Structures are given as C-alpha cells and as structure tokens.
Amino acid sequence: MTNLRRDPADEPFRQEVRAFIAAHLPPDMARRSRQGFHAPRSDTREWTRILHARGWSAPNWAVEHGGTGWTLSQQAIFEEECTRAGAPLLDIFGLSMVGPLIISFGSEDLKSRILPPFLRGEISWAQGFSEPNAGSDLGSLQTRAVVEGDDYVINGRKIWTSGAHEATHIFFLVRTGEGTRNGLSMLIVDAHAPGLAIRPIIDIRKEHSLNEVILDDVRTPVANRIGEEGKGWGYAKALLENERAFAAEIPRNRQNLATLRQIAAATLRGGRPLLDNPLFAAKIAELEVEFLALEFMTLRALSQSASQSGGQSGGQSGGHRVDFGSLLKVRGAELVQRITQLQVEALGDHGAYFYSHDAHIAGEPQPVPGPALAPGIWSEAMYRRATTIYGGANEIQRTLIAKQYLGL
Ligand SMILES: Cc1cc2nc3c(=O)[nH]c(=O)nc-3n(C[C@H](O)[C@H](O)[C@H](O)COP(=O)(O)OP(=O)(O)OC[C@H]3O[C@@H](n4cnc5c(N)ncnc54)[C@H](O)[C@@H]3O)c2cc1C
C-alpha cells in the first residue's frame, strides 16, 4: 500500500503549484469561488484552459490520456493549494465520473473526439441518470433509446440534472432493452441537440443549479455510446462509486473548517470572541477530529485503489474504484452538513440574513452586513442539506454497508 504520510520530498512540488496559482488564477474568479455560492461553469472552463496550458487540467489521469501522472500525494497537494487559493472546482463529472469510463470502455473514435476538447476546457458535463420515478431505484428508469440508422433516438424525462443549463454535453443512462443488468446503456448527447429541453428547478436558496431535462425524439450517434449496448448498469455502478468517493470532499471540508474558525474568531459574544467560548471551541474540535479521520479513510481508499490499478486513480481500470465508497459517502455527506450548520450558528443573527447570489456572483461585490465571510454561508448550508440525498441517499448506503461489512 502507498505510504500515506506526507513526504518532505513533495515540498518543492507544493511551492511550484503555489507559485503557478499565484501567477495565473484571476482574482475575480478567486473571489467568486470563495463566496460559498456556486461559481459559474464558465469559471471552471476558463480555469481548466489555464491549467491545460501547463499540462495540469487532469490531475488524476495517467499521462497517456493527457493527465499529469501525479502521485496521490501530489494530487492531494494540488487540490489543497487550489482550494486554499480559491480556484474554482474542476469538472468532477468529467474528471472522476464519465472521463474514466470513456478511457476504460470508450472506442478509440470516442476518446479522440471527446477527451482532448474536455482537457482544453471546451466541454463541460452534466449527469442524466435520475428520473421522476427512478432515483434510489435507478434500475427501473424508463427513458428509452431506439436505434434508427446510425443514431439512437431517445425519449423520456430526467430530473435533478445538476448544471445541465451550463453543460455542453450530458451523459445519460437510458433503457435499450429489458431488465436492469442487461437493459441499460450509457449515451453521450449534445446538450443543445434538437428535441432536448432543459427546464430550471429553482431551489430553496432561490438559485438555479438543478434542472428537468425532457427528451423528445432526441438523436445522438450510435458512435456516442460508451462501451457496449446493454452494459450501462455495470458502467453506472463504477461511476457512482467514484461519485461517492468524491462525497468526502476533503479540500472543501478543510476550507469550510478554516472558515468556521475565522468566523468564530471574528464574532463577539458577550464582548469576547466566540472562539474563546469553551463550549463552541469544543464543537469545532469535535468536527476537526472527525475530519481528520475522514481524510485518512479517503487516502486509504485512494491508495488501495491505486495499488489495484497499478497507477494513477481515475485513468485506468474504470477509474479509482473505491471499495468503501458507501462509508465515505455517509461520513462525508454528514460532516459537510454539520460544518456548514455550525458556520451558520457562528454567524448568529447574520446567519438568517439573505445574501443574494446574483449580487455577489454575477455582479460587483456589495458592502454586506456582518462579517466579510458571511455571504454564501447560509446558501452553502442550505444546498448541503442535499448531500445526504444526491450520489445515492444515505439510507441506501447504510443498507449497502450493513450487507457488505456486517453481513446482515
Ligand atoms: C441537489 C441534488 C443534485 C442532484 N444532482 C443530480 C444529477 O446531477 N444527476 C442525476 O442523475 N441525479 C441527481 N440528483 C438526484 C439524486 O441522485 C436522487 O435524488 C437520489 O438518488 C434519491 O432519489 P429520489 O430523489 O428519487 O428519492 P427516492 O428514491 O424516492 O427516496 C426518497 C426517500 O426514501 C428513501 N428510500 C428510498 N428507497 C429506500 C430503501 N430501499 N431503503 C431505505 N430508504 C429508502 C431515500 O433514502 C429517501 O430518503 C440530485 C439530487 C439533488 C437533491
């Protein structure tokens, strides 16, 4: 197993990454990312383009597929430095979900058409799996694709499709036969294809990240199928395991904990910083200990997966297949919620103030009531109510854990 301890030999690498980010990350992009609101996808694409010029746009892919070939430790350092500096999140749908599937199972033609533009920041993805009557019970989905000539013709309805309105491509799980095991296939579709309608779902924060996607005789070339027809369920399971491993969100949780400390230090209660209150300080300490445990669980999972695939995670053997994805999902999703809720608590009255996404992300920075860090905190806490639902509801993960680890 890979050594999980930090290697002092990586220090020059950290300095190189830090210097690159300091020289190339546009300040307005960093400001938008730091706000806690969802930054626009255009920032992700532009940051990907900047990284691509340096050969760094796929940190977790092997060199032969256009990645960096970095070790897990180097990948972790890169993520840490990016998050610390306020760089936008890279396109996880592409890097850790559909990209590794295309690398492992896609035809050479598909790889050459899709991977290079993705690495250049020209393609951004959305995931079209869930349907109004198929979420936890994904295998019962009804969106159907039928071959007509060189195309699949797709009809159906998807829901909760995050970022579809900003995506250039959507990867869909669709029905091409009967049953689950052999009846589903995975297709890539142009997000602007005729017949594909994207309807916004405005969430509790009054923000738009979710969508309903209606497919009415939408055509996509048969050549856009990933792997074999009827094998989509197996591919989807590998992809969802990667999504669950990401749910631990180590860099984001680390940053959120640091922000929590900053808010608690800047907020006065009874004339003293909240951070000096032993009860509140104990709550932070408890979360920090749990975070440390989660960080090591994630490193163990990635390390085990890398030694199984004999190289970088995400680029070989169907991506970084993490055996204990359900454990990471449950612990990570709950920790994200608890940290963001404590941030809101630390803000006191300002935790209830509505800071507008549009004013802070799309417009120029506004003077705000409360601490400078306050905008975006409530919004993030509200959005994160969904972490225990998306990527496979935690109740379902607990059942999987009971079967897999406890033999129940
Ligand atoms: C913010 C957000 C973003 C999302 N983004 C995407 C996306 O980009 N692409 C995409 O395809 N999907 C996305 N989803 C959909 C998500 O994957 C589903 O919401 C999730 O799988 C749950 O399905 P469901 O909503 O149909 O709930 P249901 O499956 O109807 O579940 C409702 C409740 O019943 C419980 N339940 C259901 N079955 C069982 C069982 N067998 N045992 C115990 N409890 C059970 C669930 O745990 C849950 O609490 C997103 C969802 C959210 C909230």
CATH superfamily of the largest domain: Butyryl-CoA Dehydrogenase, subunit A, domain 3
Instruction: State the CATH topology of the largest domain.
Output: Butyryl-CoA Dehydrogenase, subunit A, domain 3
- The total domain count is 3
Can you tell me the overall shape?
globular
Element order: H for helix, E for strand:
HHHHHHEEEEEEEEHHEEHHHHH
**pLDDT under 50 segments (min length 5)?**
311-322
Q: Largest beta sheet: what is the strand line-up?
A: 1-4-5-8
Mean pLDDT level:
89
CATH architecture of the largest domain: Up-down Bundle
CATH class of the largest domain: Mainly Alpha
Main pleated-sheet profile: 4 strands, mixed
Q: How many beta-strand segments?
A: 10
Gist?
The protein has 408 residues and is of the alpha+beta class. The chain has helices at 11-24, 27-34, 41-53, 72-85, 92-105, 108-119, 232-246, 250-266, 278-309, 325-347, 357-362, 377-383, 394-404; strands at residues 125-128, 144-148, 151-159, 169-175, 184-190, 196-202, 208-221, 225-226, 268-269, 272-273.
